[in-house]
Amino acid sequence: MDLGLKDKVAVVTGGSVGIGLGVAQTFAREGAHVLIAARDGSRAEEAAQAIAREFGTRAVAQACDVATAEGCDALIEAAKREFGGCDILVNNAGTGSNETILKAPDEKWQAYWDLHVMAAVRLARGLVPLMAPRGGGAILNNASICATQPLWYEPIYNVTKAALLMLSKTMSTEFIPMNIRVNTVNPGLILTPDWVKTAKQLTENGDWEAYLQGVANEHAPTSARHGGGTADFMVSSARRARPMPSAGPTSTTAGC
Ligand code: NDP
């Protein structure tokens, strides 16, 4: 099926691994060029080179922290420098959290706000003016099922993802006159390296695969019934083995 993406330029934050990498690969498979952003520049570079090799499109990596204004500026500049703009922006970079409302400090709330909300604001401010003269485009915000249904142990994640959902709706009304669509995806359980890391932490490098399977069996009965179980799973089993709250969005605790 031709999705009409040939030679479009897609900027994907968090495109070096997990869901973002899958998204970037899928764009490239459709003939789009991709600019992937992540803090770990060498992992992003490896991912970009692999995409270019496999799909024959241009794939460029930008090392940057999109939770900062400087990081967003670097990505916007890269889109201008490498591609003369872009047609698609996928705000995917994000991570789970682990805290209580009563104990989490303001700094942690602010850090997740910067990562899950302000990155989308800042990148839109820089990239929408580049999309509009190309005839418009699309922005896709990767929120979470937690944007509408909270998990008890990650209030900051729930709230900032819900804010991203509302930001998307609000952006969509502002940007549609420029022919730019804005949508949100609220994924459920996707097995990514973040989850594997979390499972290893929770089991202290014990039987982490069994842990993940148990989560899938408990919370994604479809996967268990069909003998799958690694494709979608739920995290709330962490209630039984709760990791220590972390200081900021460098947490390795996967969110849903
Ligand atoms: P991963 O941890 O596997 O990947 C996260 C990606 O984001 C990496 O490329 C990481 O690279 C990048 N990243 C993280 N922080 C920053 C930052 N500050 N600046 C730039 N890049 C950053 O996550 P997933 O693929 O599991 O999740 C991707 C998104 O999907 C997240 O927003 C998550 O909340 C959401 N989601 C995931 C679900 C799941 O079950 N996996 C379910 C629902 C939503 P680096 O570390 O090098 O910066």
From TrEMBL:
The keyword Oxidoreductase belongs to this UniProt entry's keyword annotation: yes
The EC number(s) this enzyme carries: 1.1.1.100
SUPFAM superfamilies given in the database record: NAD(P)-binding Rossmann-fold domains (SSF51735)
Pfam families per record: adh_short (PF00106)
Biological classification of the source: Bacteria, Pseudomonadati, Pseudomonadota, Alphaproteobacteria, Rhodobacterales
GO molecular function annotations of the record: 3-oxoacyl-[acyl-carrier-protein] reductase (NADPH) activity
PANTHER family: DEHYDROGENASE/REDUCTASE (SDR FAMILY) MEMBER 4, DEHYDROGENASE_REDUCTASE 4
Protein name: 3-oxoacyl-[acyl-carrier protein] reductase
Similarity-based family: Belongs to the short-chain dehydrogenases/reductases (SDR) family.
